[in-house]
Design goal:
This protein is mainly β. The protein contains no helices and 9 strands. Strands 1-2-3 form a 3-stranded antiparallel sheet, with no helix packed on it. Strand 1 and strand 2 form a beta hairpin. The protein is elongated.
């Protein structure tokens, strides 16, 4: 019997092969086991790959601890730095707020 491949989305060991794809029976994710590992890529809310120096736009109002107002949706952030080892994987400076860290799921590439 072949070795079980864990689901990259939910880490379930209950996966099976269908055609040339692997399918998770828990979350129903499908992936090609022969593709290169893309875990080091940081993606925006639309699935576009982000790189250091990119400009992004905030897609929803984000509350900021200690600030009287949130970062508004539509705010453009220039010259981002990526931190793949962190949950808040974007370092940036936002006018009126200063330096902060954002999650890539709340921005889109400009």
């Amino acid at each position: 019997m072949s070795e079980s491949i864990q689901c990259p989305k939910c880490a379930s060991e209950f996966t099976y092969e269908q055609d040339n794809l692997m399918v998770c029976s828990q979350c129903f994710a499908e992936w090609d086991p022969n593709e290169t590992d893309n875990s080091d890529k940081i993606l925006d809310s639309n699935g576009n790959e982000l790189k250091d120096g990119d400009s992004v736009v905030v897609v929803k109002d984000l509350p900021v601890k200690g600030a009287p107002k949130p970062v508004k949706a539509g705010t453009k952030v220039k010259n981002i730095r990526l931190r793949p080892d962190s949950d808040h994987n974007i370092d940036c400076k936002i006018d009126g707020f200063g330096s902060m860290a954002l999650k890539s799921e709340f921005v889109k590439k400009a």
